[in-house]
Amino acid sequence: MTQPAIAAPVLPRALETYPSAADQTLGTELLQRVQLEPFNAIATGIFALAILHTFAAARIAALAHRLQDRHDASSVATGRAPSPHMGAELLHFLGEVEIVFGLWAVVLLAAATAWFGWPVATHYVNDTVVYTEPLFVVVIMALASTRPVIGFAETALRTLASLGGGTVSAWWLSILIVGPLLGSVITEPAAMTICALLLARQFYDLEPSARLKYATLGLLFVNISIGGTLTPFAAPPVLIVARPWNWDLAFMLATFGWRAMVAILLSTGGYFLLLRRDLLALNGRTPLPDLEVPTEECAGPGLLPVPAWLTAAHLAFMGWTVFTAHYPALFLGGFLFFLGFSRATAHYQSRLELKTPLLVGLFLAGLVIHGGLQGWWIAPVLSRLPDGALFLGAAALTAVNDNALITYLATLVPDLGPVLRLAVVQGALVGGGLTVIANAPNPAGLALLGRFFGGAVSPLGLLVGALPPTVVAGLVFRLL
Would you say 146 and 351 are in contact if contact means Cβ atoms under 8 Å apart? Predict the structure, then answer.
């Protein structure tokens, strides 16, 4: 007698294959899902360790510096030349936030291989996980950080800053208000890159106080997270749901766009009033000159002034990348053409910065690998929450997971009504600045501004800096 074929294991297990648990408590349902698929607990445990690693990264980096300093002092005392200490180098590697999720993805792959076998594990990593967003962020970040694009953005914002006398305060307001709103056109990763680079040149280089540094970083992350909501294609958590829920441009402007502008104005204005003494103290210091003067970040010796046609070409490459954002073969192909174009126009270009975009891409790729295995517990949580609680729950979950993943899982919840859809997206958007992993562009900002925080941003400092604008955005989105 022929035995029935046993279904091959699939990673992750499809949510619809779990039995209905409408009459059970959340705890009972989650326990039942772990019993049916024990690897759920393993994958989530590894993800939790990765999150703890991100919170410990600053301390690990500080420990690496102390170990290297002691090694250098010992070398000098014994008459030897200072040299790298292997333990310090290893700790420095482990203290890099950008590698955390990629590193723990290796652990996850090993665990999946031991549990299911190599074919299932590699099928998940290679065929199931979608890397379009990490690849897009790498390309758009590299394009946005080029000399012509930054020069164009700086010229536009300088015009606005000149209305306030071109002071540091005027620059700060212009970058943090207008920059995030540009994300609705050029995408949030590009807006984050441009805002972070300009803040580095016009603000952070002037050595502001620690509380002003963290307040600015938190405000930037929150404003970027909500600033891309004037259109349905720029903010990753909106992009995920726009097509299945039929959210078009008119809907975004009427439902999210004007509220985002109000929230950004209120939060930035409030922080300006609260921290005006710290900001005004910087006004006597001179920001760096424009990008036509070579600097360490944006130019090199002997470069010619950037002509208008070259800036237009760079913006066209960015436009192509945004237009083909769902098609990696097309925007990666366009980027390869750009690399050749950049080489042909080298006398106008600064050195193309690829290290930071690639590290950010690694961070996001690791995050989506882990995130794809968290639906077993996130979906039941979202489906059981009422309107207000769903908003708060989505915001809280966003702090420990990418907000695009939260909204993606919401699209999988059956019979999620219009009010609940709004609540989950609102929560995912306003919570996008609470941690580095809450929103896809945040790692880009961290990579560009991290050096101003001693090489490692304190998660608690970022949380404190982002919490007030998060509350403001939440109140605006929910009450207006």
Answer: no
How does pLDDT run across 214-268, given as a tens digit for each residue? 999 999 999 999 998 998 877 888 877 887 888 888 999 999 999 999 999 999 9
Range of the domain at 212: 132-479
Displacement of CA 461 from its chain's centroid (Å)? 17
Sequence letter at residue 231: T
Does 97 share its domain with 136? no
State which amino acid sits at residue 3: Q
CB neighbourhood size of 273 (10 A): 9
Residue 3 within a domain: no
pLDDT for 301: 54
- d(C-alpha 356, C-alpha 350), whole Å: 15
272 plus 418 within the same structural domain: yes
Structure token pair of residue 121: 């594990």
Nearest to 465 by CA among 252, 100, 216: 216
Per-residue pLDDT at 289 exceeds 60? no
Is there a single domain that holds both residue 187 and residue 322? yes
Residue 121 domain-assigned (yes or no): no
Tens digit of pLDDT for each residue in 28-51?
999 999 999 999 999 999 989 988
Domain count, the chain: 2
- Domain match, 362 and 422 both: yes
Q: Is the domain of 266 the same as that of 305?
A: yes
Angle CA 63–66–67, to nearest 5: 85
Nearest in space to 460 (alpha carbons), one of 212, 93, 214? 214
Q: Name the residue with tokens 């729950």.
A: 393
Q: Is residue 337 part of a domain?
A: yes
Whether residue 362 is contained in a domain is answered as: yes
Q: State CA 151 to chain mean position distance.
A: 23
Distance CA 60, CA 232 (A): 39
**What is the full DSSP assignment across 59-104?**
HHHHHHHHHHHHHHHHHHHTTPPP---HHHHHHHHHT-GGGHHHHH
Q: Where is the domain boundary, 86, 101, 116?
A: 101
